[in-house]
Amino acid sequence: MSSIDPVTGKPKEVPVIPLDKQGFNALDTEAFMKLLITQLQNQDPSNPMSNEELLSQISQMRNLTSDIELTDALEGLTLSQQLNSSTAFLGKEIKGTTANGTEVSGVVDRVYVKDKASFLVVGDKEVPLTNVTDVTNES
Length: 139
Description:
The protein has helices at about 30-40, 50-85; strands at about 1-5, 10-15, 90-95, 105, 110-115, 115-120, 125-130, 130-135.
């Protein structure tokens, strides 16, 4: 994306910032503390922020940080569980459908994880773990 520089009249590049890096989404703990310190340094001396307000803001940031860390840990755990479940299908005959709805049956050759989802591979077909409808031991 480009725009015109008002001084030189030449086009200049404008950085595109992803949505997850804008506003409060981009605010990490360090940035929050800098913002809080700046707020404290520039507050009205005749009407300073109360201790309760200060503690409330710090508490909210700690809660947000904890929530983010918990979400990341749960996503990792879920992915690990999916991979463990998928490996149990190796060498077994399954029936299911591919992501586009094609019916597949055969022996699972391998498993892999892509885009936070687990897939079973039967020949050249990829079956999402959630699309498996039947499982039997290979005869």
